[in-house]
Specification:
Layout (H helix, E strand, L loop, with lengths): L3 H7 L4 H64 L1
Helix pairs in contact: 1-2
Length: 79
């Protein structure tokens, strides 16, 4: 709606139509900028989530390796 209304008002000569068209174009520009900013924030958030998930998996793998090393050590000591 915001995109089509300025087009229909473009041909109007009256002051109200010109002011309304200007306001709508400005509002549309601001909403597009806000959408771009929100997209960047969302993408960065997803990236941070993915990094956090990978870090968590990496820590889990380290814990499992440590546990296996401990078990191997205990096995050698008991033999």
């Amino acid at each position: 709606m915001l995109q089509t209304e300025p087009e229909s008002l473009k041909n109007k000569i009256d002051v109200f139509g010109i002011e309304r068209c200007s306001k709508l174009k400005n509002n549309l520009r601001l909403q597009r900028e806000q959408a771009q900013e929100m997209t960047v924030i969302w993408q960065n958030g997803m990236t941070l989530h993915n990094i956090g998930h990978l870090t968590s998996q990496s820590n889990h793998i380290k814990d499992v390796k440590k546990y296996l090393e401990d078990v191997k050590h205990k096995l050698k000591v008991t033999q």
